Amino acid sequence: MPRVVSVYLPTWPTDRHRRMLGQQAPPADQPLVMIAREGSRQLVAAANVAAISAGLRIGMPASKAQALVAELIIEELCPEEDRKELDRLALWFLRNYAPIVAADPPDGIVIDTTGADHLHGNETLMLSGMINRLFAMGFTARAAIADSWGAAHALARFSAKPCLVVPEGEAAQAVLDLPIAALRLESRTVAALRTLGFDRVGELAATPRAPLALRFGPEIGRRLDQALGRVAEPIDPIRAAEAIEARRAFAEPISATETIARYVRMLVVRLCAVLEEQEIGVRRLDLILHRVDNTLQVIRAGTAKPVRDVERLTKLLCDRIDTIDPGFGIEIMVLSAAHCEPLEAVQTISSLIEEPEAEIGGLIDVIANRGHRVYRVAAVESDVPERSLAAVSALAEDDELGWPVEWPRPSRLLLHPEPIQCMALLPDHPPVSFTWRGSRHAVKRADGPERVFGEWWKRDKELRAIRDYFVVENEAGERFWIYRQGDGEHADSGSGSWFLQGIFG
């Protein structure tokens, strides 16, 4: 079943304007509106959150808005620039999330994520990641995923949740209680329907189609069917102008798995030849299959490092051919290098000189494209243990930072330090015993304290924060890494509570 994401940018024009101004942008809490001319009148065409909170609304005369809010900032709306930037944002989604992405003017993006959510954990993590990354770029966003474009579009704009995942098969039921404005109908049609007493999508869906079609034409029925998932709504995907593609059209549609795999290899050979000429390698590869029923099937493959090896790329794509539904046949195949990076030819080291390093990139790519996250842990320059490491790419270059060697570190750090109950003499003595997860441990040996100070340059609250770490061993020979918040003397250095953060051995 298809899965479609609709990303809604409710304050797109004002957010884009502030992002364009950069450091010169007005404060986010200052009301800002964009105006457009309609005949001889100037109307509010867009408003930021602060302006809406101040009581301004879209369609209000600009003079009235200025009279209501004294410090209102007024700028001219630039619909052409907004559309161009929306296309650029769609390209960003194309590179980072899925092969089928299109702008949904004037304030949205539509993405077919069928089969792509596993690359981001799951659908919930994928949606929340989209919203968070857009927020970091300065854009307010809402998102919904459903079985159809119409349902996702309606829920993103009219649902109470900013991030909504509708389970497969439940999209039709989810939209019935939404207002009829969610159906993407013209405003005059919505007004006429409300005059007739229609308020919710469910009321409209339960009404016979013939009278509605006789009065309003086929548009209402079409939009209803799209929202309820009864008819397909193809997405015309945006493509980067500089994208490298290999294309094959068939006189007779193909559908056999072996035939598809054979032509995939042919396209990979052609694509790699172009990549070699430009001295680049592919990091993200999209196989787009156009079916005879005007729908698309896609496979996306990613690599940990730039690659242009024919066998390796062919395997990544062919491993997922079983996920393709050819329907009544495939008439066009397009292989697109969605993301490329420089890759210069490297001379192979002779085995007579030294032992060549094992190449594990192919294995990592296969595992990652099956939905598993592959990474390694690297050191981060920080004295605070939970901040001293980070997950990096499995093939990232080695760093020379390393971890402290003056004091022992446990082989296992807990995800979060867990509180324990201790008996100890203050200020510098280790505990005599401690209780963790309901079990009491008598301390036979201990080493410490190792004092760790808070990183005051990151957070004001850590200006006087102190931790005293101890390595303790119980009667069974098990060793634990525990710490006390504070120095045991000054209240502003910490609460004096004890925590267990790691286990040795």
From TrEMBL:
GO terms for biological process: DNA repair. Transmembrane segments: none annotated. Residues 429-502 form the DUF6504 domain. The keyword Transferase applies. CDD domains: PolY_like. Residues 32-152 form the UmuC domain. Pfam families: DUF6504, IMS. GO terms for molecular function: transferase activity. The keyword DNA damage applies. It comes from the Bacteria. Keywords: DNA damage, Plasmid, Transferase. PANTHER family: BLR3025 PROTEIN (PTHR35369:SF2), BLR3025 PROTEIN-RELATED (PTHR35369). This is Nucleotidyltransferase. It comes from Pararhizobium polonicum.
